[in-house]
UniProtKB/TrEMBL annotation:
InterPro entries named in the record: IMPase, Inositol_monoP_metal-BS, Inositol_monophosphatase-like, Inositol_monophosphatase_SuhB
Protein name, UniProt field: Inositol-1-monophosphatase
Keyword list, A-Z: Hydrolase, Magnesium, Metal-binding
Family: Belongs to the inositol monophosphatase superfamily.
Length: 274
């Protein structure tokens, strides 16, 4: 890909992330409808849909020949015919958006032939924009990010997400996470996977594990973590897909093998949630 094309993709991705974040902050202060998607633990608001449409319009106005895969408008495999694909999550952490009014983010990624080119995760409440361009490093606002502290599993602050509701107990993840918690310095849960992964890039967390995420949850943050020098794979240590649901492990490389060893010994591959 030409440097000028990459620069144009970066510029638009960052613009979309900021604009979407500002729109959700504004709408958060007004009344909005909340619906259940699949259960009382799976919410979607009118703002999720509005923000996604807003981002789609921005992309289509500039790049009408690009594909778009977004959480609220994903239609089967329509996107597969495009070389350049935008993967977007308008609000990552909808439950936080509704309850906490903080700790949610917008995630915008651009992939070209399956390869991550640009990733942007924006936290509008704190005005923090995490981003990366392939081969160009990772940044928080304008500060370069580097995951380079030597950390053992015992010294690590880890984070996990998604199944902290009824389903955790049904599939026994509560026990695995409990065991993991006994091996590390501490565990945190923020409730926005994209933000949690971006925090690994920023060194605020040392590692992140999730049994199952969608492509729009990890699409942008994975590029940011990798560009910051972190390692991102599935929990089984295989390459992360770019357009499918997957387990995710993102961490400081110094304890990657140690964490892999633990996860493999616990047989953490779980059946699909849906
Ligand atoms: P969302 O808010 O965009 O739905 C919550 O712990 C995190 O998990 C959020 O990033 C949330 O994204 C994501 N999440 C919620 N339901 C999920 C599901 N069924 N599969 C994967 N990720 C999910
Ligand atoms: Ca959702
Ligand atoms: Ca999400
Ligand atoms: Ca979402």
């Amino acid at each position: 890909m030409q440097a000028s094309t990459l620069a144009a993709l970066k510029e638009l991705a960052l613009q979309c992330a900021r604009s979407a974040g500002e729109l959700s902050l504004k709408r958060m202060k007004e009344p909005f409808t909340v619906e259940y998607k699949t259960s009382a633990s799976d919410l979607v608001t009118a703002v999720d849909k509005e923000v996604e449409n807003h981002v789609i319009k921005m992309i289509q106005a500039r790049f009408p020949d690009h594909g778009i895969l977004g959480e609220e408008s994903a239609h089967a495999e329509d996107y597969k015919q495009y070389d350049t694909l935008w993967i977007i999550d308008p609000i990552d952490g909808t439950t936080n958006f509704v309850h906490q009014q903080i700790n949610f983010s917008v995630s915008i990624a651009v992939y070209h032939k399956g390869e991550g080119m640009v990733g942007a995760v924006y936290d509008p409440s704190r005005d923090e924009l995490f981003y990366a361009v392939k081969g160009g490093g990772a940044f928080l606002n304008d500060r370069p990010l580097q995951v380079n502290r030597a950390v053992s599993l015992e010294q690590a602050l880890l984070c996990t997400s998604v199944f902290w509701n009824k389903r955790a107990e049904q599939i026994g993840i509560d026990l695995i996470v409990k065991k993991l918690a006994g091996k590390v310095r501490g565990m945190r849960l923020l409730g926005s996977a994209a933000l949690e992964m971006a925090y690994v890039a920023a060194g605020r967390l040392d590692g992140y594990v999730s049994m199952q995420l969608n492509a729009w949850d990890f699409g942008a943050a994975r590029i940011i973590v990798e560009e910051a020098g972190g390692r991102v794979t599935t929990m089984m240590g295989t390459a992360l897909p770019y357009d499918q649901k997957s387990s995710v492990m993102a961490c400081n490389p110094t304890f990657y093998e140690e964490l892999q060893h633990f996860l493999k010994s616990e047989q953490t591959d779980v059946p699909s949630q849906n």
